Amino acid sequence: MMGMRELGTNVGSVLASLMFVWAIFKNHFPYRLRGPIEKYIQKLVKFVYPYIQITFHEFAGEHIKRSEAFSAIQNYLSKKASSQASRFKADVEKDSKSLVLTMDEYEEVPDEFNGVKVWWVLIKHTTNSQSFSFYPNPDEKRSFKLSFHKRHRELITGPYIEHVMKEGKAVFLKNRQRKLYSNNPSKHWYGWKRTKWSHVFFEHPSTFDTLAMETKKKEEIKNDLKKFRQGKEYYTKIGKAWKRGYLLFGPPGTGKSSMIAAIANFLDYDVYDLELTTVMDNTELRNLLIETSSKSVVVIEDIDCSLDLTGQRLKKKEKDGDEEEKDPIKKKEKEESENKDSKVTLSGLLNFIDGLWSACGGERIIVFTTNYVDKLDPALIRRGRMDKHIEMSYCCFEAFKVLANNYLDINSHDLYAKIESLLGETNMTPADVAENLMPKSDEEGVETCLNSLIEALEEAKEEARKKAEEEARLKAEKEEKDKEESAQEAVKVDENSANSVVKENGFHK
Length: 509
Ligand SMILES: Nc1ncnc2c1ncn2[C@@H]1O[C@H](COP(=O)(O)OP(=O)(O)OP(=O)(O)O)[C@@H](O)[C@H]1O
Ligand SMILES: [Mg+2]
Hints:
The protein is α/β, with parallel strands linked by helices. The protein has 3 domains: 4-128 and 137-175, no CATH class; 179-391, P-loop containing nucleotide triphosphate hydrolases (Rossmann fold), CATH 3.40.50; 396-509, no CATH class. 50% of the residues lie in helices and 16% in strands. It is built from 17 helices and 13 strands. The strands form 3 sheets. A 7-stranded mixed beta sheet has the order 8-7-10-11-12-9-13. A 4-stranded antiparallel beta sheet has the order 1-6-5-4, with helices on one face. It has a two-stranded antiparallel ribbon with strand order 2-3. Helix 10 crosses helix 11. The longest helix has 63 residues, at 446-508. The protein is elongated, with a radius of gyration of 35 Å. The N and C termini lie far apart (137 Å). Mean pLDDT is 79; it is low at 93-97, 131-138, 309-325 and 335-340. Magnesium ion is lined by residues 256-257, 301. The site of magnesium ion has 3 residues, from helix 7. Residues 316-340, 464-509 are annotated as: Disordered. The chain crosses the membrane at residues 7-25. InterPro entries: AAA+_ATPase, AAA_N_dom, At3g28540-like_C, ATPase_AAA_core, ATPase_AAA_CS, Mitochondrial_chaperone_BCS1, P-loop_NTPase. It comes from Acer yangbiense.
């Protein structure tokens, strides 16, 4: 059955034709009659067809980027369409986890907001343009058309559109596969690829549950993250950019990288792994960071190896170097990057953390990691920049229990007491503890693994004892040597002063 709006549309088209005919023949009417007739026709059109239509194009104006509004509407309607439209197009969206159903072209999807009805239609325009275009398919342009009664103009153009955008973005975030980005050297920023960041899917399994550290510390970090995620209004109120800095420090293998993955998984954010050593200068750094999206964790690992205290870049880390020597392309790249002077400075980095544009995009966590917190410039780590300092330390008993649960599925064992006392006496990183807990073969049971850990801990304890002894011996030797040297020095001074007395005496003679 034809609804009121469809009827209106048909009558509307008849009236539109009438307007057209009027435009052609109006010159045949006396001049003074033309104005009133036109006014009446318009009134009639408005009366019979009181609907307003808004069009949202996929690519607006000169933008080569897909319109955000179009994407949001598409996502919003994918939810609505599945329950209301009868013809669908199934898209396994690139980068998306699941099948996305979108309405087919010209399929009308009704929606309701605060009791007001609106209608959406997806329209496809086909043009025969031969010219070069950035658009994915230059001959096909799509847009969404929204119709509603003019009575509700304010409600629809205001709160309703806002609601669609918000919901659409939420659907996108739910469906998307998170990404791990790494920055490309700037010579790859141009040409057809033009990408500053390359990505793979982020699939690190580390979570706060699998992370070995004291429960209290873990909870504190989780609460901090929760507060951050919900804090948009709070950050706006206090006039601060919506970002938070974390500094993770501790010896290698204590779980700094695992912690970053756990943070990203907890917040459901993307990760940008920024390798500072391939960034040529502050401008490049800024361009890279401007391109990071919100809801992301920006990571700069081993900050002490990327910048020194004066802000000059150091050469690439040795441990990466070995790997690169083998690959001729990488070797060349390395040489090239070392030949050019690096100009990324500490102040450039601080500008990103604190500067005006640090607020671009919002909702970002910035994480620095280092093995040596004492080496860092105080300017970099003062409060306000790195809001939270987290020490990742050697494995304690509580952390061991998490690892034992992860690796061996156990919560207690007779050997726990022994392990607890050994962990209290010696330093072992969670990475080493984990390595010992991993069964070496299928036959190895829980007890064998725990015993191999005990053995390793005893060895480490013995090694530490020997090292301490050796250090004490060296220290004693050095002290002995220093003492001897100062005694010899004293003798020399005595001899010199005796000589000078003789000389003086001689002079006086
Ligand atoms: N706290 C931890 N909880 C769980 N697993 C851990 C922890 N610390 C280390 N591991 C294990 O050890 C491995 C190495 O840890 P990770 O890479 O996170 O250490 P890191 O502190 O980043 O070291 P580096 O300073 O060398 O980068 C991980 O793959 C993980 O399996
Ligand atoms: Mg690491």
